[in-house]
């Protein structure tokens, strides 16, 4: 029996056969030349056809996906048509290399460039290599790399998954997900949570598990056990009962003493919103509007945007729907809006800042939101991402007012916004913390990197202090003792961790927004503590020396987590 320890990112306890991801597409031989009788023009045309086929296949999968998966697939599809990738390959073909070798070398150069940029662009480096493998497989007439086919459910084990793979995980076939790489805020982790799949990342050694070996996975504890015994089988059976209990979510978030904590959903479009409403969400805390802009060469019209927003509003009549305005740049480049030559896109013109270089896009988006809101019964709130100063907050609030939108807000994901939350919140009606970005910026740790997983967790005391500062900043001027005069929510992945959700409430957070599948678990745990107890647990976490100390101390005070398998 072997035990493997990683980082648990999505709860659940299951037993099943391990299936390893297929080995990557083999590298074409170094210096491989054009075959005899094949011209440069013919080889280049064949490469472009293969790239188009990969693009179209990924785009087709995106159309069948939704939410996070849809966005990931669309972004990866764009890479298959990347001008730098194809032009670089074309130049190498002109020098006599085969098209397979040419695209291999060109992708390596593009990937290295993106990786060196760091931050979000390092994630795009993985996309380029995934696309490269798919193009080479297409040129060879082989099946594209991906999740293995199986007639029976299995535990998927891999070094890491390409975004295109994580986006199409089928919970009916894949029982759990375990990777040796990745981090707690990687796309692999986020997609697993959205699908409700037990998942463990950053678990060294699991790639060496024999295919077909029976394994036990605990997605909360972050463990994988080969050849599970009676204890593991009992735990897996107990989880099945727990899952049915969590299905009884009554749609309301509240502490044991009646303190209301609205539980909202993160969505990417109308399909997600309808599903979230069916799962009991009290509204939408994060509507990622950039999904309307991806996979386009030009800005969508006001009418097109309004129609897309309307679908989400209609799923929640009379309830709050919070839209995040276009979060373009960095990991979500748009050809008509972002500058691909930025030396450090994660710290560049992204989010709200795109209005500096492309004025008019944000104004038209606000016009579309207002038009859809007029035709809806939803309570529409609007927030801007990447706000860093009070001046930016004031400018955004003015733009919302000009568009006829009454409830402007900001995303707190830059440490400066948390540190000056009192000034920023005097300019707007609310704030929402994007803990994924706030954590990686505060800790200077790329959230995609497995070796930095220990740094890149919102349990870090430094991050929790920034959350508290943001909540304290919601006090009205001249009434500093009155906390939360303006709402401060959390819409990052931290809200989906039931133990951390209790801490966030204790820190003064007023609403929690998460993947809809996490609503029931968070609600169940909140109901076991009073507001005063949540505040005590928050102090316990804040005073901890390390993130792991904070997590362990809080979980030790919440026995319900073990009872529920969380």
From TrEMBL:
Instruction: Name the cofactor(s) required for activity, per the record.
Output: Mg(2+)
Signal sequence, start to end: none
Report the catalytic activity: L-histidyl-[protein] + phosphoenolpyruvate = N(pros)-phospho-L-histidyl-[protein] + pyruvate
Domain PEP-utilising enzyme C-terminal positions:
253-529
Keyword Manganese present in the record's keywords: the answer is no
Q: Where in this chain does the record put each PEP-utilising enzyme mobile domain?
A: 154-222
* Region spans: Disordered: 1-36
Matching InterPro entries, A to Z? PEP-util_enz_mobile_dom, PEP-utilizing_PTS_enzyme, PEP_util_C, Phosphohistidine_dom_sf, PTS_EI, PTS_EI-like, PTS_EIN, PtsI_HPr-bd_sf
Q: For this UniProt entry, which segments traverse the membrane?
A: none
Q: Name its cellular compartments.
A: Cytoplasm
Q: What is its EC number?
A: 2.7.3.9
- General function of this protein: General (non sugar-specific) component of the phosphoenolpyruvate-dependent sugar phosphotransferase system (sugar PTS). This major carbohydrate active-transport system catalyzes the phosphorylation of incoming sugar substrates concomitantly with their translocation across the cell membrane. Enzyme I transfers the phosphoryl group from phosphoenolpyruvate (PEP) to the phosphoryl carrier protein (HPr).
Q: What is this protein called?
A: Phosphoenolpyruvate-protein phosphotransferase
């Amino acid at each position: 029996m072997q035990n493997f320890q990683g980082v648990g990112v999505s709860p659940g306890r299951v037993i099943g056969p391990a299936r390893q991801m297929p080995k990557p597409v083999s590298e074409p031989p170094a210096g491989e030349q054009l075959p005899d009788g094949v011209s440069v023009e013919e080889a280049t045309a064949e490469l472009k056809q293969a790239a188009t086929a990969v693009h179209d296949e990924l785009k087709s999968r995106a159309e069948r996906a939704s939410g996070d998966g849809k966005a990931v697939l669309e972004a990866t599809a764009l890479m298959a048509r990347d001008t730098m990738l194809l032009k670089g390959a074309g130049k190498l073909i002109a020098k006599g290399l085969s098209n397979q070798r040419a695209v291999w070398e060109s992708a390596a150069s593009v990937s290295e460039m993106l990786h060196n940029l760091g931050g979000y662009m390092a994630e795009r480096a993985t996309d380029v290599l995934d696309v490269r493998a798919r193009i080479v497989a297409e040129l060879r007439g082989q099946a594209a790399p991906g999740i293995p086919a199986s007639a029976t459910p299995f535990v998927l084990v891999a070094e890491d998954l390409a975004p295109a793979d994580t986006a199409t995980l089928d919970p009916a076939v894949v029982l759990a997900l375990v990777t040796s790489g990745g981090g707690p805020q990687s796309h692999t982790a986020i997609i697993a949570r959205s699908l409700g799949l037990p998942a463990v990342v950053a678990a060294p050694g699991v790639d060496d598990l024999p295919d077909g070996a029976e394994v036990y996975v605990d997605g909360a504890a972050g463990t994988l056990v080969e050849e599970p015994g009676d204890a593991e089988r009992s735990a897996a059976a107990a989880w099945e009962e727990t899952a049915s209990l969590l299905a009884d979510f009554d749609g309301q978030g509240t502490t044991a003493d009646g303190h209301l904590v609205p539980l909202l959903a993160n969505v990417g479009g109308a399909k997600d919103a309808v599903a979230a409403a069916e799962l009991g969400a009290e509204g939408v805390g994060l509507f990622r509007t950039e999904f309307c802009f991806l996979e386009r060469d030009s800005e969508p019209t006001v009418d097109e945007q309004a129609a897309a927003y309307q679908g989400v509003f209609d799923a929640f009549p009379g309830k709050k729907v919070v839209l995040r305005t276009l979060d373009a740049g960095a990991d979500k480049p748009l050809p008509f809006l972002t500058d691909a030559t930025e030396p450090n896109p994660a710290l560049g013109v992204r989010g709200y800042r795109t209005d500096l270089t492309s004025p008019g896009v944000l104004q038209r988006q606000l016009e579309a939101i207002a038009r859809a809101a007029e035709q809806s019964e939803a309570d529409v709130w609007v927030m801007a991402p990447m706000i860093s100063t009070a001046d930016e907050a004031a400018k955004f609030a003015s733009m919302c007012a000009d568009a006829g939108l009454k409830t402007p807000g900001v995303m707190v994901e830059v440490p400066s916004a948390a540190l000056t939350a009192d000034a920023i919140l005097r300019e707007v009606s609310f704030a929402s913390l994007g803990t994924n970005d706030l954590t990686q910026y505060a800790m200077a740790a790329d959230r995609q990197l497995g070796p930095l997983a220990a740094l890149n967790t919102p349990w870090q005391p430094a991050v929790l202090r920034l959350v508290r500062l943001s909540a304290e900043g919601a006090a009205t001027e001249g009434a500093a003792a009155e906390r939360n005069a303006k709402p401060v929510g959390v819409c990052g992945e931290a809200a989906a961790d039931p133990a951390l959700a209790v801490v966030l409430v204790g820190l003064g957070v007023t609403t929690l927004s998460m993947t809809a599948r996490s609503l029931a678990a968070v609600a169940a745990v909140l109901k076991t503590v009073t507001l005063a107890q949540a505040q005590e647990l928050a102090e316990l976490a804040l005073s901890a020396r390390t993130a792991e100390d904070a997590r362990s101390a809080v979980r030790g005070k919440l026995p319900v987590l073990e009872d529920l398998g969380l």
